[in-house]
């Protein structure tokens, strides 16, 4: 069953780009889209909610933000059911809670806060790090955001760790009718690298072993009845380098993230941290335990 989509907006250009992407995704999946604006009036604006005729500037602004986003979504995809909500709550808390209900959350790469110069906004980073359901951070150029490259990329690690991410990427590629590229990286230990590599030397062994690991990781998820064409890409080097390179010609980059129970810190890891800050296309973070 496809998950419902929710997109958080704050009036920034980045959040409106997220609305554009989310309504397109909702149309592909055939699911409704809910647009939310977490105003957190009492905490951040110093305004008390007003239900009378004289509404506070914060309420007026919130209505403007949500109204603009809803109109934009309905104009882009008239067949998608679009609903909206304004909640006086911290935005990260709201979106993480919504994710706990099995909803895929879509956010922009940056917001309208004081730290807009950051590569990734604090709300987007917090939601991606803690949400129990998939989170999609919309970033990258227009061609990447508009499925102009006809390819979904998924980062694949060891067998038994990547199934949720691969399954998500496979559905995304199928919905778009595009190729799925599975990227797996490996690094040869320094002591195993010969001074003058020749065919049959240790580096070939590591490449062959990595190809086998990728095949094993894909075996249980990519079955023969899928209509998606899968390209396997095994490359020597750092995983973050391989994924960033692949993102340049991708419509979506999918990575997995561990969610250990009881762990309160940032649950992303250095590779996911890097791609969320620097990828050239939207990034989907798919959690697994």
From TrEMBL:
Alphabetical list of InterPro entries matching this protein: Rossmann-like_a/b/a_fold, Universal_stress_UspA, UspA
Pfam families in the record: Usp
Domain UspA, chain residue ranges per copy: 5-139, 149-287
Family that this chain belongs to: Belongs to the universal stress protein A family.
This protein's name: Universal stress protein
UniProt source species: Streptomyces lasiicapitis
The organism's taxonomic lineage, starting at the top: Bacteria, Bacillati, Actinomycetota, Actinomycetes, Kitasatosporales
């Amino acid at each position: 069953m496809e998950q419902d989509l929710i997109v958080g907006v704050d009036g920034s250009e980045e959040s409106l780009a997220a609305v554009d992407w989310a309504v397109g995704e909702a149309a592909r999946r055939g699911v409704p889209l809910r647009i939310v604006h977490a105003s957190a009036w009492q905490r951040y604006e110093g305004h008390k909610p007003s239900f009378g005729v004289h509404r506070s500037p914060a309420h007026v602004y919130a209505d403007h933000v949500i109204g603009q986003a809803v109109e934009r979504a309905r104009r882009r995809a008239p067949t998608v059911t679009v609903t909206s909500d304004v909640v006086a709550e911290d935005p990260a808390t709201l979106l993480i809670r919504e994710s706990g209900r099995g909803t895929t959350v879509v956010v922009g790469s940056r917001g309208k806060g004081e730290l807009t110069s950051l590569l990734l906004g604090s709300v987007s980073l917090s939601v991606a790090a803690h949400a129990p359901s998939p989170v999609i951070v919309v970033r990258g150029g227009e061609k990447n955001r508009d499925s102009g490259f006809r390819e979904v990329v998924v980062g694949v690690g060891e067998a038994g760790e990547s199934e949720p991410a691969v399954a998500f990427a496979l559905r995304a590629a199928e919905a778009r009718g595009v190729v799925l590229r599975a990227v797996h990286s490996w690094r040869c230990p320094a002591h195993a690298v010969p001074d003058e590599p020749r065919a049959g030397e240790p580096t070939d062994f590591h490449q062959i072993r990595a190809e086998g690991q990728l095949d094993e990781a894909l075996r249980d998820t990519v079955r023969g009845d899928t209509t998606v064409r899968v390209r396997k890409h095994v490359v020597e080097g750092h995983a973050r380098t391989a994924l960033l390179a692949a993102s340049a010609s991708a419509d979506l980059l999918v990575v997995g993230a561990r969610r250990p129970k009881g762990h309160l810190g940032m649950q992303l890891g250095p590779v996911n941290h890097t791609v969320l800050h620097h990828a050239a296309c939207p990034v989907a973070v798919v959690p697994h335990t």
